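dumping these here so i dont lose them again. two proteins, back to back, each one seq then structure tokens. dont judge the mess
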Amino acid sequence: MAFKKDVPEIIEPRDVFVGNPKADVTLEEFGEYESDVCAKANEIVKQLLEDYDGKIRFNFRHFPLTKIHQRSLKASEAAVATAQEGKFWEMHNTLFANRRNLGTTSLKLHSKEAGVKNKRFLDDLVNATYGWQVQGDLKEGIDRGVKDVPTFFVNGTLVTKPTYEELSKAIETALKKTKKKAPAKQKAKA
């Protein structure tokens, strides 16, 4: 009798959120870890998460531009690997802080800094265990018209300029839309 090998379920990048996981407004970014522009955008995201504390959730999707940044793919895989232990945000920020140092061995060190305990982390990177998840993000980004990083969406609507002002305006608009919908739901329950 053959035994089925237990395959652990992988937490997909689209299911990893920072902020209020039940928030009605989702800020989504397609980006990569070697990009200076994405690193600057990450600072804007941190500020938005602080300013809209409890009102938004953030989802980072991987869009490595491997023709320009050869190490961005493995860095994305490392981020997905750390998400499996609930350490995505810690690793995400560590990767941006060390974006000039993203070789495979360095990624292992960065994962320890982020608090990852997985002893197979390096093996997972070498074997591209999370490569399909990164490729899935890349494909979805292309399907949604992403051509460059960072590209932001608020509740699925493209934000053309990744500035604090434009993202904040889009979040405010989305919050107003969700408030308009809430009373209708309450009336329906009555």
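---- next one ----
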Amino acid sequence: MTIPGAAKLASVVREFGRRTIVVVGDLITDEFLFGKPARISREAPVLILRFTEREVLLGGAANAAHNTHALGARVLPVGVLGTDAAADEALALFGGAGIKTDGIVRERGRMTPMKTRIMAGGYQATRQQVVRVDREPSGEPAPATEDALLARLDAVARDTDAIVLSDYGYGAVTPRVLDRVRALARRTIVTVDSRYDLPRFTGLTAATPNEAELAQLTGEPVDDERGIEKAGRQVLERLGARMLLVTRGSQGMALLERDGATTFISIHGSDEIADVTGAGDTVISTFTLALASGATPLEAATLANIAGGLVVMKRGTATVSGAELLRELGESAAP
């Protein structure tokens, strides 16, 4: 597949390693339990799975940080973990990836968010998600934890090239944390992915909602390009953002610029998607890092679209590397 402007896009990717990105938000542990179908239970009309393996990966803001690191940038996650086993596993995964955890605060008694996905399938068959169990903290972090978060944010944000806000509704992005990040947005790029409360994230550089979120925010139908542009312009005005990157699943993406055009970008690669878990984290990480590396909004959106097309062909909570992007652009990893 020939990608227009591939050489320029490759030059942006090669800048990734010179950038520092701060990721602020809800750090999640993703657990996958795999089993092979065995029989129907006598206790209830449910399938019994014979356990085969367990895999634990970084999720939520932790996955956004992992993706940013995989793309080649220096990343500094800022968020809250408990003192439970899920937190220990997340910290071990950060350490194994070589990601610094100076910005992470641990709160005794707080539950670390963990999403457990039960996956069923034979050894040679595609494994499908049967059910998901979420373990969630209740409410925002304690005041002392919030104070520590603000101090960590101030410390790591001094030399950052951009900030990613990854809000999954678990309370890490408190009003005070958001106000501090909003102040930083006056001098640096700040992007946001908020699953449930995007309207409160005003005054930032860009947001990355999906089609369903756009429809829910505006009450407008988003069945075609005209509907997406109408709804997207409303959200842009409401947020006071410079850009909106709308993810559209198998239809690709739409980039809306406050002072520019609306551009629709076709899906990259196959529309036979393997797994969308964490794909939004890949998109916002690539988009933000590209903007911080000197890309135009359209170039950044194009790279995010390519990265999204690559990651949905992988199973589980996956990442895309800078080398993979360069290969997809038809370029070598050499400078």
